Design the sequence.
């Protein structure tokens, strides 16, 4: 890849990539799919002199199902997620989020790792990874550490990744077939806009009673969040319309949205309750 005025390094393997980061930890912007970084460069938001292009690093590609877990390289694209039945069957929230990820052209370029490491509160892949109980791998020349996805972001656009580390893999456990889930979002033009509010869910329902459930919301706080009070209320509860109305009110007390150019705080808070009700109705349908 050549970009005018920018020196680009394109390592062929992970060892070479980590060595570059080790020697020059603060020098490089990291380029994966480029759907976000290149736009920022074109808009003049950032002015990198050096890019580390990960497109040819073979260890960052592909995915597997092994030892009760699904493991993905960070260069897996959202298009690849949609093309494989493994995700539709074993990771419904992530599969549905991939369908919302821009146009087909964007999905074929945008990578899972890039969407995660940007640490945007509105990143569509992150709420699904929260509910799937995912971990991410941060590697350097001298260390490998696995971090729970909920501990990665330190604020909007900030992560705990050290300058000499690289996000290389994502993994999450495979749940029994009785578990179902999904991803819902509100945006200006559906897939082509940044989410105003998003919600992922992953749960199991037996005889009308929620046995277990995980929820995560995007674009309603400085980072993606899970609502513990809402989850606790739902576990062991029957999904009647009355109970769904009650739990929607609980959820509204656990989010901390802001007003910005895309939406306002009041609307976002109300829509959290709306999306939760939609998600619970979908879960009832999926589990019958």
Sequence:
């Amino acid at each position: 890849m050549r970009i005018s005025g920018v020196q680009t390094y394109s390592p062929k393997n992970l060892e070479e990539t980590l060595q570059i980061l080790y020697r020059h930890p603060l020098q490089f912007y990291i380029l994966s799919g480029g759907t976000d970084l290149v736009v920022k460069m074109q808009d003049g938001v950032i002015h990198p002199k050096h890019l580390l292009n990960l497109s040819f690093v073979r260890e960052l590609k592909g995915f597997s199902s092994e030892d009760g877990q699904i493991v993905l390289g960070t260069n897996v694209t959202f298009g690849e997620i949609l093309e494989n039945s493994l995700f539709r069957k074993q990771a419904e929230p992530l599969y549905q989020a991939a369908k919302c990820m821009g146009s087909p052209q964007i999905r074929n370029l945008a990578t899972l790792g890039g969407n995660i490491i940007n640490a945007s509160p509105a990143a569509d892949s992150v709420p699904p990874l929260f509910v799937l109980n995912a971990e991410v791998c941060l590697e350097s020349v001298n260390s490998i550490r696995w971090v729970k996805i909920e501990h990665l972001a330190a604020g909007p656009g900030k992560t705990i990744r050290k300058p000499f580390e690289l996000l290389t893999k994502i993994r999450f456990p495979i749940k029994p077939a009785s578990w179902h889930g999904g991803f819902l979002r509100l945006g200006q033009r559906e897939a082509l806009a940044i989410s105003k509010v998003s919600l992922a869910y992953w749960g199991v329902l037996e005889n009308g009673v929620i046995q277990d459930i995980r929820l995560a919301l995007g674009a309603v706080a400085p980072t993606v969040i899970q609502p513990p009070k809402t989850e606790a209320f739902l576990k062991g509860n029957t999904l009647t319309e009355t109970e769904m109305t009650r739990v929607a009110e609980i959820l509204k007390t656990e989010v901390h949205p802001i007003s910005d150019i895309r939406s306002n705080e009041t609307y976002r808070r109300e829509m959290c309750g709306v999306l939760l009700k939609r998600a619970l109705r979908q879960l009832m349908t999926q589990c019958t």
Observations:
- The domain at 180-286 is CATH 3.30.390.50 (Enolase-like; domain 1).
- The chain has a mean pLDDT of 92.
- The CA atoms of residues 32 and 253 lie 37 Å apart.
- The longest strand covers residues 197-206.
